[in-house]
Amino acid sequence: MLWYKEKLVTADEVKFDLADRGLLLGDGLFETLTAFNHIPFQLEAHLDRMIHSAQRLGMNLDRAVLQEAVLAVAGLDEAPCVIRLTASRGTGPRGLAPPEHATPLVFATRAPWHNAMAFGQAKLATVSIQRNPTSPTSSMKTLAYLDPVLSLQEAKAKGADDALIVSTSGSIACTSMANMFILNRNSLVTPALDGSVLPGIIRRLILDLAPKLGFIVSERACSIAELLEADLVVASNSVRFLTRIIGVDDWPLSNHSSEAWMALKNAVAESVSQECKGFALTP
Amino acid sequence: MLWYKEKLVTADEVKFDLADRGLLLGDGLFETLTAFNHIPFQLEAHLDRMIHSAQRLGMNLDRAVLQEAVLAVAGLDEAPCVIRLTASRGTGPRGLAPPEHATPLVFATRAPWHNAMAFGQAKLATVSIQRNPTSPTSSMKTLAYLDPVLSLQEAKAKGADDALIVSTSGSIACTSMANMFILNRNSLVTPALDGSVLPGIIRRLILDLAPKLGFIVSERACSIAELLEADLVVASNSVRFLTRIIGVDDWPLSNHSSEAWMALKNAVAESVSQECKGFALTP
Q: Which helix (H) or strand (E) holds A203?
C-alpha cells in the first residue's frame, strides 16, 4: 500500500500521467523521514522544509495533504520504516515553462528501517562533482537529484561508502546523503547554509542539542584540511541519524573523541525515544 | 498514442512504477527532436548523444530500441511534430545507489510543431543560477533538468523570453533551452564544451554549415561583454532551430548582420529540406 493522490492505494491502482513534470524535468520535491511506533520523527520540521522549498519553486503545496500522506503510510504498520514523501509540480504542456496553475502530485511510500542503519561508520572519497551554491537544487531536496546519485556512484567506484562533496567555492559542503560535522575539542562546526548545503533536519537537531552537551556549535565555511585533522567527523541524515566518518580517500580519520561520539548518539537516540513513544535506537 | 515499453499504446494503458528512478531522483535522460514528413531530423545525432550520455551515467540503453521509439511516434501522423524521447534508469530500491542491473524505461511522445516556432526572436535576462561545469547534468539532457526550468522562470519574471546563463567560471554558457552563437564580421563563436554547455545538435550543425557560408567558426570561452557588442547573437536548439537574440536585460542588441542571419536560417532550412523530403521551414 502507498499514498497516492489523497488516498491509500495498491501499486496496481496507480494511474500516472507521463506528462508529469517531476518525471520529465525533475520539477518537484521530496522528503525522506523515519517513523517509529507509527510516529514520523521530526515530521513538522520535514513538512516545514518541503513547504518552504515549494514556495521557492513557486509550487502550491497543501501542508495538510503532505501531513496526511505521511501519517497514512506511517500508520500502515508498526514496524520502523523509512517514508519517502514526493511532491511533483504536476503535469504540464511540452517545454520547460510550468503551466500557470499546476496541480501538484503528492505520493508517499514506505520501506523497512533497520536498527543497523543508525550510528554506523563510513569511509568517504573525494569526487569530481562540486556543489553549486547558485543552484536551488543544492539547498533543497528536489527531484533533480542526479548530482548526489552520481557523486555516490563515483565514491563507490573508488571503494568508499559515500562521497565528500565540496562546493565550487572549495569549502566542504556535504556527503551525497548527509550533512557534515567537524569536532575539535569541544568546538562542533558544520558548513554554513551558503546555498551549497541542504538544511538537514538532523543537522538542525544536532545544532539544537549539542550546546546542552557542552559543545560550542558554529556554522561557517569548513576546509578539507581541518576535516582531516579533526578529533571527530560525523555525517548526519534522517535515515542513518549519525555516521562516524573513519577516513577520506587514503587518509584515516582519528577516533580521539569516542566520548563525544557517544554523547551525540545518545542525545539523538533520546530525541527519538521522546518523540516516538520510547522507541530505542540502541546506539 | 505514445511509445511505452517497446510498443505503441494509449495513455490509459500506461502502467508506471512509482519506484522509477527517473521520477524519484532525475536519474535518466531525454532528447527533444522534430519530425517532418515522418522523418525525425538529425535522428542519428540525437541517438548518438543519448547513447553517449547513457554511457557516462552507467546506463545500458539499446540504441535500436530508442530508434524504434522515435520512428514509431514520428510515423503516427504526417503533421510536423516535436518528439520527446525519455529514458529513465528504471526502478530501484530505496536510496541513491542504482541497482546493479537496472532495466531502463524508454518512452516517446509527440506534440504538434508549428512553423512559427522556427527562426523567432527573443529577449534574454541574466539570472542568478550559474551553470556548474563539474556537474554532468550541465552537459547532458538529464531528467534532473530543474536548473534550466528555474532559470527560465526567473527570466520570464523579469519580462524576458529566455535566460542568459553563465558558467560558474563567469563565461557565457547557454540559454535555458539553447546554445549561443556570437557573430562579429565573419567570425562566428560559440562557447566551448567545457562541461557547462550541452553539445547541442543544432550547435553542431551550425558549426558544420557555417564555414561553407564564409564564416570562420571557433569554440572558446565567451564573455558577456563581447556578446553585448556583437553584430549578431543567435541561440540554437532542436525545436526552434535558430532564434535571434534582440536584447539582454535592458541592453538592446544590434541588428547589423541581417545578411548573416538570413544565410544561417537558409542553411538550416536547406538541411531540414534535404533530410526531410523537401519540408519547407519558410525562414
A: helix A201-209
